[in-house]
Amino acid sequence: MREQKFKISFNSPVILGFTLVCFAALILGMMTGGRTNNLLFSVYRSSLFSPLTYIRFVGHIFGHAGWEHFIGNIMLILVVGPLLEEKYGSSNLLFVILTTALVTGIVNFALFPRVQLLGASGVVFALILLSSFTSIKEGSIPLTFILVAALYIGQQVYEGIFVNSNVSNLTHILGGLVGAGLGFVMNRNKMNKY
Predict the structure, then answer these.
(1) 3-state class of 188 per DSSP?
(2) Which domain covers residue 102, as residue numbers?
(3) Could you report the per-residue pLDDT of 82-133, keeping only the tens digit for each?
(4) Does 7 map to a domain?
């Protein structure tokens, strides 16, 4: 009887690449006492004449405040992301991540001049709501999407109003809206092809 050898496969290049960049940013942040987070991996009000301002519009999704913050976001991304990358393709998933980064980065820059935003939680919530579109059929909206959206957005609104924390609930809501919107568009385009 022949022994079967198991190999490790690089099954989800965008999600694994994203995870590695976040890990490298975390280590750099720790090694520099947070200076790289301030320079590249967080978004805040700064001069529009600085090229780094535009890098931070996307770079903020890679930075994390510490191990707990990093693990909390990356665990969810590693659970949900590969399934979405398989369904929608690497380029579409990368588009969702970058769109989420830009939307949350620009809104934070414009509306919250004294708030420094970093972390992948907007991406996490974009992927969560995108995942609820995986079983969409023409002419119907999955009940799971309605439940996830209602519970998730309700929780974020409640926490934004009544809970004083360092969590950017608006970023979570915006990430969820980006994931839901792009999920709707990608599924509609897929159905129109058939």
Answers:
(1) helix
(2) 13-193
(3) 999 998 999 999 999 999 999 999 999 998 888 899 999 999 989 988 887 7
(4) no
Inside any domain, residue 33: yes
In a domain, 3, yes or no: no
DSSP codes of every residue in 108-145: HHHH-TT--B-SSHHHHHHHHHHHTTTT--TT---HHH
In terms of Cα–Cα distance, which of 70, 103, 116 is closest to 180? 103
d(CA 38, CA 116): 8
| DSSP helix/strand/coil, 21 | helix
Cα 34 to Cα 26, 98, 114, 168: the distances in Å are 9, 23, 18, 19
Q: Which tokens is 192 given? A: 């129109």
What CA–CA distance (Å, rounded) separates 92 from 58?
Answer: 17
Number of domains in the chain: 1
Distances (CA, A) of 129 to 4, 46, 51, 122, 153: 38, 31, 32, 11, 10
Residue stretches of the chain with pLDDT short of 50: none
Instruction: Give whole-number Cα distances, 11 to 120, 144, 180, in Å.
Output: 21, 26, 24
List phi, psi (to 5°) of 117: -105, 130
In a domain, 2, yes or no: no
Query: Which domain CATH number covers 88?
Result: 1.20.1540.10
pTM for this entry? 0.85
Q: How close are the terminal C-alpha atoms of the chain, in Å?
A: 45
What does the alpha-carbon distance between residue 145 and residue 19 come to, in Å, rounded to a whole number? 26
